[in-house]
Amino acid sequence: MSLCPLCRSMEESVNHVFWECTFIKCVLEGAGIDGLFSSMEQNWDKWIANLFLSMQKEQCKRLVITFWAVWHHRNEVYHQGEKQCATRLISFIKAFYTKNNQLKLVSKTGVRQNEGAWTPPRTNMAKGNFDATYNSHMMSSVSRIIFRDFEGYILVACTYPNTFVIDATTAEAKAYLQTVTVAEELGFRNLVIEGDSLTVIKKSKHLKRINQILV
Fold first, then answer.
1. How far apart are CA 117 and CA 91, in angstroms?
2. Which residue from 125, 144, 126 is spatially nearest to 134, judged by alpha carbons?
3. d(CA 184, CA 200)
4. DSSP assignment of 70-128
C-alpha cells in the first residue's frame, strides 16, 4: 500500500489526491471551489467530465489551476520532501489565477504583443521562448516556456512554479535555466533561446553548460 504523501493517513489514488485527502479538501475550500463538487459516485473519468460540463468557463479555469498546483505540489512532496502549508498553496493558486486574468486583459488591449513579435529561427532549428511571473509578497514565481520549430509549430509548452525567489531577476534566471534543462531533456541541439531579460541572457554566455546546446 502506498500512502498519500500529503496526508500520510490513507492509501493514495486519483480520487484521494483530488477529492478525499484532508489537505486537498482544505486547499479546495480555500480556493473557493469546494462547493462545486458533488459526491464522487462515478469513476474518476466520468466524474471530472461531468464536472467540467456543469461549470462556467471561469470556474473551469480556477479548477484546472488548482488541480495543476495540487499535483505539482504532490510531486514535490513525494520526490523532494518539500511540503508547503495549505495556506501558502492557496495563496499561490489565487495569485496565479489573478495574474492569468491580468495578462489576458493586457493582451486584449494590445499593450502586450510578445506573441505577435515572434520571429522564427533558421531552417531546421528550434526556438525556445521564456518569461517569468514574480510575486514579491510570496517570494515565488512561475516560469513559462514554449518551444517552436522554424515553421512556428509548437513542439512543447510547459510551466514551472518556483518558491523562495528573492527578486524578479532571479525569477527570470530560473526560467532561463529551466528552459535549458527542458531543451537538454528533449535532446534539442540546434536551438535558439529568447527571453525578455537581457541581463540573464548576457550572463548565460559565460556558462559552459548552456553554450553547449545553443547556436
1. 33
2. 144
3. 19
4. HHHHHHHHHHH--PPPHHHHHHHHHHHHHHHHHHHHHHHHTS--TTTT----STT-EEE
Q: What is the mean pLDDT of residues 103-118?
A: 51
Above pLDDT 90, what percent of the chain? Answer: 7
Q: Are 171 and 134 spatial neighbours (Cβ–Cβ below 8 Å)? A: yes
Q: Look at residue 211 and tell me whether its pLDDT is greater than 80.
A: no
213: closest CA among 195, 191, 194, 185? 191
Q: Give me the sheet containing 126-135, strands edge to edge.
A: 154-163, 140-149, 126-135, 191-195
Distance CA 63, CA 51 (A): 10
Higher pLDDT, 110 or 194: 194
Position 66 scores a pLDDT of 87
Q: Which domains does the chain have, with CATH numbers?
A: 14-109 (no CATH), 126-211 (3.30.420.10)
Q: Give, to the nearest 10 degrees, the angle between helix 57-80 and helix 86-109.
A: 130
Q: How many Å apart are CA 22 and CA 76, to the nearest integer?
A: 18
In this prediction, residue 86 has a pLDDT band, given cuts at 50, 70 and 90, of confident
Contact 67, 126 (CB under 8 A): no
- The residues, any chain, with a CB within 8 Å of residue 104's CB and separated by 6 or more, are none
Confidence at 142, pLDDT banded by 50, 70, 90? very high
Beta strands 140-149 and 126-135, pairing class: antiparallel
